[in-house]
Amino acid sequence: MAQVTFEEISASDFFYRNRDIAGFTNPTRAIFAAIRELVENSLDAAESLKIPPEIYVRLSFEGEASKETQIYKLRVEDNGCGVPPRHIPPAFGQVLYGSKYKLKQQRGTFGLGGKMAILYGQITTHQPATIISSTSPSSKIFMYKLMIDIQRNRPIILDRKVFLNKEGWRGTVVEFSLEGDYLRAMPKILEYFKQTAMVNPYANITFVDPKGRLYKFTRATTVMPDPPKETLPHPYGVDVELLQRLIQVTPYNNMLEFLKNHFHRVGEITARKFLEFSGISPSKNPKKLSHEEVVRLMHMLKKFKEFLPPDASCLSPLGEELLKTGVLKELKPEFVAVHQRKPATYAGHPFIVEVAIAYGGEIPQRGGFLIYRFANRIPLLYDEASDVSVKVINAMNWRRYKVSPDMPIAIVVHICSTKVPYKTVGKEFIADRPEVRREIANGLREVARQLQRFLTRREHVDKERKRLGVFGKYLPKIAQFSAKLAGKEKPPDIEKLLRSVRKFGAEGV
Amino acid sequence: MEPREYRSSIMERRKEVLASLENLGTRIYEQIERGYFPSIEMPSRSTENIYYDPNFRQFILGDKKVKRSARNIRHLKPFAQLVWTALFSYELTSQRKTSTLRDVYYSAQAYEMTFKDQQESNNIITDLETVLGFSREDFNIFPEERSAVFGDLTIRYTVPGYEGKTLNLTSHPDGVMIGPALTSADFVETSADKVIAIEKGGLFTRFIEENVHKKFNAILVLTAGQAPRATRHFIRRLNRELKLPVYIFTDGDPWGMHIAMVIISGSANAAHLRDLTTPDAKWSGVWATDIVNYKLPTDPLDEIDMKRLYELQKDPRYKEDPLWQREIKTFMKIKRKAEQEAFSRYGLTYIVDEYLPAKLEETK
Asked: Is this complex's ipTM strictly greater than 0.95?
């Protein structure tokens, strides 16, 4: 449906001219974005089969492009579901073609990233991309060499080969050349892998950089979160366009059935109540609604208070256990508290906030919290200051929890939603929605309380240890000095005193 | 003047000091042996426990006591520091070595007994003084010295290496520093019949040059500002043991007046100690009335000076002798002050030839 809307404008052309909005702003950002988009596609591909992802990324130096930029070859391999051969050319050679236009939580939202990366590679190097894929161990392996006809938004197939799949391989390999500045992008790329490993603790990720350095992020578990289910749109989240499309395709010829069958969490009773509320006859044929009536229907849908909130089965949060595993694995803190909020909604879109707070261990002390932001299990690395999480964190009264920014503390905020409220197409920060803000704040309060309990307990133990240390240090000295002063040979026995202090101390704890 | 008697007084005192230190050690040792947390009781030095005693004519501590117990975690470190200081003092005294306050601070580190700063170690020494009733000079711990004495007094050293040696205090024209050796020396003989204490070094030197010690038969003591405790104790000994009257000359301002007062009646800080005062000593000048009578060149009293005068006016020490209140009032009236050197306007020797004899006569 979506490509129909964009057909006449040539989506490729549009994004070619506006590549900034997709995150390909400059050679540094571009190389980071390319890796990120392909890795995310690979993670999705493996998760859709519920198998722990196995991802291999190699970036190799091809030659100098200009004074500041180089040509690199990027290769990303996964063990995911693969792409059926007939879909390979459009999936990799046609912008806005893809599997991501349904209502369930997925990493990408535009079906744009992977192709954008290939498009960018083609623009900068004029080289074709190579795609190799197999959808199951019993299937053959298909290889395509593609370029994109930018003006017509169509794939150009340069070469196609079919191999026997002797080793029973399944997955996808994408390889293409692109211009970039790896040295500048390196910190962000490595940070990206580390954070990706944190929220995908069940994935093995290997990265070989142009210098031949190997970065390996090994999975700490094979448990994976439940995959998201597809859902119908929730009445609060629809717009006129969506209503028109539903009316076009619906097989139902009365409003009651129309509402019951096309909307999330609308049953017989709710549908009747709503129709009464909005003064629409249950037997009215939806196809006969005038444009004005459709607009009114949308407003009434938003006004009606009795729709049940969307359920979260379409979401796939990480879960407290996995989040904890990920944080422990990548940050190695002394203490971690995690919390998953109950599902909530903003503008009819369900979302779940998960937060973690980690303290001490290998977390550096740097005069401010380390903040890790994630949306649908994607690390958000740019524009931290504009993000809603950061605003909430800054507005919190941390002193109430005995927490101060000069402590070694890392905070993780993960928002998953069918529609993450990004503020830009670059998908780098999350807009400040009151509903989202409230969920983050409540989540942080919960983990902050847990951290406070931990800190208080530790302070107690520390204090007690210190107290005993003071007695252990000074009592022997008092004994020794007084014996000398009194002209005695041996210091008096202080064991009894020390014992009583310990007993006394044990009660205090 | 029987030298032997003086000598034994110094020896006696050292024995007493050592015995009281030993006694403190034994008390603590036995408490621990019996399975108790050792504790020490001493008079409280807080301001509400400091009283002026008209009989002693000095500040004394009241009945309020404080208890240092090794059971209390907050007392534990100061307690250990106190016992260490006692041991250190014992070793100093018995080996007849002297030490400064600064030394104490550093020596402690060799015993892994750290003091946070000099102030902390000074406080612990004051605690020890309060517990035992001896002053730190008795434990051979001295502050940095700066005061001096000059005049016909023969002393006999008791410090190791000089034991029995004598010295006449006119032997050096700059005067002899009142340090540990002099403080622990016995008095042998003197021809002087008075002591003149002077606030400032310049005038002290002038008096020596002008033979004041001969002309007035005096022992000259330089206090160099507020007199250190060793000097106050020394002046007291001159007064008590040699029966010499003491005359004090300071600048004509509230601060000079108070220098004289501390020599006479002691300070609140030393309320836990005796033998530092000379109640019969006289403040001979420069008085406020002298400023008027001698038409001395003056400076105005500033705000801080005036504030100090109001404080002194209420101080019980200043209510003993009507002289004090009269002079305070005069200062307040004229709102002027004058230094000792102000007499130089009448020529360098005027102060010796005219002022000094007149004032000695007046305050006799």
From this structure: no
